[in-house]
Amino acid sequence: MLAMPMPEHSPGTWSRRPGFKIGVFAALITVAIVVALSAIAQAYPAGLRSKGVASTTAPTSRVSVTRASASAGISRSITVVGIGDSVTSGTNCNCEPFLGLYASELASQQDLTTSAVNLGVPGWTSSQMLASLTQPGAFRDQVAKADILLVTIGANDLNPLDENSSIGCSASCYEPLVDSVGRNVGLIIAAAQAIHPGHPATILVTDYWNVFQDGDVGTAENGAAFQGFSDTLTRAESTQVCNAARQAGVTCVSLYQPFKGDGSQNPTSLLAADGDHPNAAGHQLIASTLLANTPKPIP
């Protein structure tokens, strides 16, 4: 076997330079480190040297925390819980849903620390919400922590009427569904109040601007006649929802007027591309409307 030639040594490096002793080099490195650490210590205030700087990122997409300014030394903490359907969850918005916006604005306005827990479930009906509130489980436990509870529910209960064949549906045709929503909302409020009677939550119940599609998309896809019917249906359900809220002694917040005025206002600019759910501007409007109707003082 032929012997392989050994590789040639590379040209001398700093460690091989004549007269440069390793011990001297180590001493110079030590001095350099000491000087560098001293400079860093002078450049940063003592409070920033700690690794324990708090993160401002919310722990999950469903829970967000807004802290009041530290100047006032406020220690109060308010938990805002939102229960509802796809409007509450923020479906098709790709934005901060109204719940988080409301909690943030409340913290700023009242100088509080707030946390927002979004329990919105797309597609939920009032019967499904009531069932979850009246049986043990994570949903009920979260609602029990609420200082302020925001409730938006009932549109999906009316899905059997979401077709053009319903245009001729008279009051006697849709009233059973509408009345059922009102009854369930009353039971939902009672169940929420019973969870922690020693610390009752401030409860705000909303209605809808439309239980189905609205604006330009709604008219284009369903026609003007059906839009007129859905408006009538929405107003009827709003009456039942608000009556149930007031009878239970809680606040009903109408979203119809902010979105549609007297009914002639086109809400397209407040809706997502599906014409059904709020966009970022719509969620901001809901948050502001809720804030303006929140009873004071905050519990």
The total number of structural domains is 1
Kindly, what is the distance between the CA atoms of the first and last residues, rounded to a whole number of angstroms?
91 Å
Poorly predicted runs of 5 or more residues: 1-61, 69-74
Order of helices and strands: HEEHHEHHEHEHHEHH
Principal-axes geometry comes out as: globular
- Secondary-structure-derived class: alpha/beta
Spatial ordering of strands, largest sheet? 1-3-2-4-5-6
Largest sheet: 6 strands, mixed
CATH class: Alpha Beta
CATH fold topology: Rossmann fold
Radius of gyration: 30 Å
Please provide the count of β strands.
6
What is the number of helical segments per DSSP (H or I, 4+ residues)? 10
Strand content: 5-15%
CATH-defined architecture? 3-Layer(aba) Sandwich
Summarize the structure in short.
The chain is of the alpha/beta class. It is 43% helix and 11% strand. A 6-stranded mixed β-sheet has the order 1-3-2-4-5-6, with helices on both faces.
Q: Main attributes?
A:
disordered N terminus, alpha/beta, single chain, six-stranded mixed sheet, 299 residues, Rossmann fold
